[in-house]
Every structure is written in C-alpha cells, then in structure tokens.
C-alpha cells in the first residue's frame, strides 16, 4: 500500500469516526447546557423571591417576578419562531408555567392582607409580608395574573402534552384557584389540602392511562399541576400548625407510601420501604387522633376498634406482611369485643355481632383462619349476650319454655335423620376447605 493510499484510508477512518462520535458528544454537551441553564434560572429566581431586600417592597418584587415570567415566555417564543427549535421552547414555557403559582401565591397574600386587615396573621419574615395595597392595584394584579395563568399554561401544556391540554388546564386552574383563597386558619387550609390532593390523584390516574404522559414531557406537565399543592403545603407550615393539619399531612404520606408508590416504581426494596413508612404514618395519625379525643391513658373501645379496621385496610394495599396485619387486626378486634361485653359497654352486643360478621367475611375473602374464627367467636359472644333474655323468659315460664325446647330438639333430630348424609358430606368439605387456608 502506497503512502498516498494509506493517508487516504486514514482520513476516511477519521471522517467516519468523527461522524459516529461528534453528534453524540454534541448532544451530550447540549443536554448538559440545558440542564445547567435550567438549574441556574430556577436557583436564581427562587433566591430572588426568598431573600428580603431592604430597598425592595414585596409589591415591587411581584412585578419583577412577573417580568421574569414574561422574559421566560419571550425566550420560548424566540426558540419556537426564531430558531425553529422546539426543545428549548418547551423548557422556557415549562419554567414559565412553573413560576405562575408563585405569582398566584403572592396575589393571595395581597388579597388576604386586604380582606383581613389588622386580623391578618403576620409572619416574622419580611419577604412574606405585604403592606396594605390599594384595591385598584390588587385588581390590576389579579387581571394580569389571571390572563398570564390562562395563556402561559395553555401554551406550555400544548407544547408538553397536546392530547391532555384540557385535563391539565382544569387541574392547573383548580389548584391555583384554591391557592388564591385568602385563608390561613387551621380548619380551612387542611380542608383545601385534602380536596386538592384528592383532585390531583384523580387527575394523575387519568393522565397515566395515556402512554405519552409517561415520557419526560408528560412527567413535567404532571409535576407542574402539582406545584400549587406544594406551595400551599409549604406556606401552611410557616403559619401556626394545627392538629388537623398535622393529621392531614401524615395521612397524605400514608396514602402516597402505601397506595400510590406502586404506580411510580417496581423496585421491591423501594415499595417495601415506602409502604413501611406509609404504614407507620397511618398508625401515627390514628394515635394523634386518639390522643386528642381521650388521651393515651383513657382509650376506650370506640377508638381502639378503628385501629383494627385500619390494619385490615392497610393489609389490602401492602405487598408485605398483609397476613400479619390481618392477624393483629383480628386478635385486637376479638379482644376489644370481649372487653366491651364484659364491661357492658353501650351497644356492645350489636358491636360484637357486626364485628363478627365483618371478620368472618374477611376470613372468607382472604381464605385465612384467624379472622374467620375470630369473627365466629365475636358473633357467638354477641348471641350469648342476648341469651340472658332467654334465661329470664325461662325463669318466668319454666314449663312453657321446656315444652318449646323439647319441640325444637325433636324437630332437629328428625331433620338430622333425614339429611345426615348431606350434612356429613358438607361438613367434610367444610373441614377440608379450612385445612387449605392459611
């Protein structure tokens, strides 16, 4: 091979190598640049909103934040129409949509301060305080925020998930509407959080049925509609925390850890850890409620029995130790029913009958002996409690009661003689079925 041919072949190899490596390297560099730019924008904007400027009033900070959102939208328009590049446009508009709930939260603070006046709860943070503003200025801010909320959200969701724009817009408007409400007390805030949490879970279940929503763009759109809830949660922690809010937050952790975690991961270890945390959170929520009602030292049957029900509910969703949960729930329910009957608690016989039926059905449902027999014992305890009325009737009319009992015994003997084979075969099938249960 001549030197010329060798040099030509070497240049060909280098050219092919450049074609294979260069685009991949360039794409990685572009990806890193986008991540870095996004992180810088988010960190800088968040730092600007959180720090307290001595020479910058909160109302002015709202206008500067609004200008920043418009600047993000302008960057998206430049990418979309000037550079003809859709990925950058999606990033810019996604960031713009992400900052919209911040403006709504600030507008909510303005309205709250104006509506409550001197009764408004003032936080010890300068960057969260709003001085009294004129109603005309609040009205202008409201109109601008509402217009941007609709226009920017629609544009951003159209770029991220075109097929689910309607659902995403409804969820976004609902979340920001609840975020806008000028309430900060310990009753309405937990109620708003619960309503928004249920609505977002319903929306999430609907969106996940679309496979396109499982991609990165769809995940981004789903995360954006949850920002109002996160802001409400963060804001509520800054105010005096009520017992209702604590129970609400812990219950949300339980629902996410026990029920929702299986939608987002298939890792056995991840599911195990999340469900363990969720189960502990559910038990803590029950303990807080029980302690607030009667105190730990004076727990009565009406509060302990829901703990048994809670264990059965958890067993229906957890992937590990479900049988152990039902075992503990059954034993606890049996002990509570027995104690209530011994202490002659109010409605304890009806409680025993209802608990017995529920446990028996649970045993049939899960094919487990412990809840099945515990249910039978509870039901039998309720029946025996009512047998004292039969004893009282016998004491008042012993001869009449003996005649009635004799008739029942004779009829039972006749029935057994006629159906003994069928009864024996069903008993054998019943015992064989019980042997196969856990």
How many structural domains can be distinguished in the coordinates? 4
Give, in order, the helices and strands: HHHHHHHHHHHHHHH
Distance between the termini: 80 Å
Structural class per helix/strand content?
A: mainly alpha
- Mean pLDDT score, rounded? 79
For the report, how would you describe the main beta sheet? none
Proportion of residues in helical segments: over 70%
What count of helical segments does DSSP give?
15
The low-confidence runs, each spanning 5 or more residues with pLDDT under 50, are 1-11, 13-21
**Coarse shape:** elongated
Strand tally is 0
What is the oligomeric state here?
Answer: single chain
Estimated radius of gyration: 33 Å
Q: In percent terms, what proportion of residues is strand? A: under 5%
Describe this structure in words.
With 438 residues, the protein is mainly α. The protein folds into 4 domains: 27-239, no CATH class; 242-297; 300-396; 397-435. Helices cover 80% and strands 0% of the residues. It has 15 helices and no strands. It has helices spanning 3-50, 58-82, 86-116, 135-160, 165-180, 188-207, 216-225, 227-238, 243-258, 268-293, 301-315, 322-342, 348-366, 369-396, 398-435. The chain is elongated. The model is unreliable at 1-11 and 13-21 (pLDDT under 50).
SSE topology:
Elements lengths: L2 H48 L7 H25 L3 H31 L18 H26 L4 H16 L7 H20 L8 H10 L1 H12 L4 H16 L9 H26 L7 H15 L6 H21 L5 H19 L2 H28 L1 H38 L3
């Amino acid at each position: 091979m001549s030197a010329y041919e060798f040099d030509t072949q070497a240049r060909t190899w280098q050219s092919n190598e450049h074609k294979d490596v260069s685009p991949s390297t360039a794409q990685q560099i572009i990806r890193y640049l986008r991540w870095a730019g996004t992180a810088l924008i988010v960190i800088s904007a968040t730092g600007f909103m959180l720090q307290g400027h001595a020479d910058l009033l909160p109302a002015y900070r709202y206008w500067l934040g609004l200008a920043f959102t418009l600047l993000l939208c302008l960057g998206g328009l430049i990418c979309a129409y000037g550079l003809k590049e859709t990925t950058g446009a999606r990033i810019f508009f996604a960031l713009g949509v992400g900052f919209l709930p911040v403006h709504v939260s600030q507008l909510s603070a303005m309205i709250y301060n104006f509506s409550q006046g001197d009764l408004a709860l003032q936080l010890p943070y300068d960057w969260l305080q709003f001085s009294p503003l004129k109603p005309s200025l609040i009205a202008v801010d409201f109109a601008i925020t509402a217009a941007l909320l609709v226009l920017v959200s629609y544009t951003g969701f159209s770029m991220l998930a075109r097929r689910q724009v309607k659902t995403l817009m409804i969820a976004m408007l609902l979340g920001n509407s609840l975020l806008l409400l000028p309430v900060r007390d310990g009753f309405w805030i937990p109620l708003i959080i619960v309503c928004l949490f249920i609505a977002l879970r319903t929306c999430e279940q609907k969106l996940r049925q679309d496979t396109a929503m499982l991609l990165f763009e769809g995940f981004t759109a789903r995360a954006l509609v949850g920002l109002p809830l996160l802001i409400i949660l963060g804001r509520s922690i800054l105010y005096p925390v009520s017992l209702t809010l604590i129970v609400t937050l812990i219950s949300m952790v339980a629902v996410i850890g026990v029920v929702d975690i299986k939608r987002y991961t298939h890792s056995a270890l991840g599911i195990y850890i999340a469900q363990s945390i969720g189960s502990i959170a559910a038990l803590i929520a029950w303990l807080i409620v029980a302690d607030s009602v009667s105190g730990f030292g004076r727990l009565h049957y009406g509060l302990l029995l829901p703990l048994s029900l809670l264990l059965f509910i958890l067993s229906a969703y957890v992937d590990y130790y479900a049988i152990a949960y039902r075992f503990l729930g059954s034993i606890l329910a049996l002990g509570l029913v027995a104690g209530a009957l011994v202490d002659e608690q109010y409605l304890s016989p009806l409680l025993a009958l209802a608990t017995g039926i529920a446990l028996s059905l649970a045993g049939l449902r899960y094919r487990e002996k412990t809840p099945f027999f515990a249910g039978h014992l509870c039901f039998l305890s309720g029946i025996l409690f009512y047998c004292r009325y039969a004893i009282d009737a016998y004491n008042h009319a012993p001869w009449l009661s003996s005649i009635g009992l004799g008739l029942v015994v004779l009829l039972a003997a006749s029935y057994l003689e006629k159906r003994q084979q069928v009864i024996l075969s069903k008993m054998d099938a019943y015992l064989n079925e019980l042997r196969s249960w856990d």
